[in-house]
Amino acid sequence: MPSLPTSSQRLTDRKRQAIINAAIDEFRTAGYETTSMDRIAARAGVSKRTVYNHFPSKEVLFAEILHHLWEAIAGGEELAYRADRPLRDQLLELIAQKFRLLNDEAFVSLARVAIAAGIHSPERALDMVARMSEREEGLTVWIRGAAAAGRLKTNDPVFASHQLQGLIKSFAFWPQITLAQPPLDIAAQKHVAESAVDMFLAYYAV
C-alpha cells in the first residue's frame, strides 16, 4: 500500500503549483523577456530561492508550463496503438486530444510568447521547439507501433508524424497564432481531422 504524502510534501506540491500558476500569468501578461524569476516568486508568494529549488532556470520553467498545460488538457493520457481497433478511429482520437490543446487559450497565448522569444534568440527557439516537440511524441510512438504491426508502411515514423501534425496545424494552430483567428468550432475540427486522417491513411495505410 503506497504511503500517504506528508504535510511537508503537500506543502512542497502546493508551492510548486503556485509557482506554475504565477508563471503562467506572468508570461502571458508580460512576455518572455520581461518576466523574471523575481516577479514569478513575488506573484506566487514564495522566495526566489524556492522558485529555483523547483526550476533551475526560466527556460526550464517555461517548458514545464507547456507540459503542465498538456497534461491538464489531455488528462495525462497516452493513447497507444491497438491492434483490435480501426486505424482511422484511433487517429481521430489522437487528433481530438491535440485539438483540446490547440483550443486552450492559455496554451495559445504561451505559444505566442515562445515564438516571440525565439525570434530574438534562435538558440532559445531551438530549445523551446525541442521541448514542445516532446509533447508530440505520442503520435510518433503510435505510428511506430502501427508500422511494426504491418498496418502502416513507413520507415520514418517521425517524418510521418510531422506530416500529419502539419496538416492539423495549418488550420488549427498557425492561423490562431499569427493572425489571431478564433479556434475552430466543432464542425470545422471534425472536417479538418477527418480529411487529414483520410489523406494520411490513403498514403500510409497497408
From TrEMBL:
The species this protein was found in: Dyella dinghuensis
DNA-binding region as annotated in the record: 36-55
Keyword RNA-binding attributed: no
Pfam families: TetR_C_7, TetR_N
Keywords per UniProt: DNA-binding, Transcription, Transcription regulation
Origin organism lineage: Bacteria, Pseudomonadati, Pseudomonadota, Gammaproteobacteria, Lysobacterales
Protein name per the record: TetR family transcriptional regulator
InterPro entries referenced in this protein's UniProt entry, alphabetically: DNA-bd_HTH_TetR-type_CS, Homeodomain-like_sf, HTH-type_TetR-like_transc_reg, HTH_TetR, Tet_transcr_reg_TetR-rel_C_sf, TetR_C_Proteobacteria
Ranges of residues in domain HTH tetR-type: 13-73
UniProt-recorded Gene Ontology molecular function terms: DNA-binding transcription factor activity; transcription cis-regulatory region binding
Gene3D superfamilies the record matches: Homeodomain-like, Tetracycline Repressor, domain 2
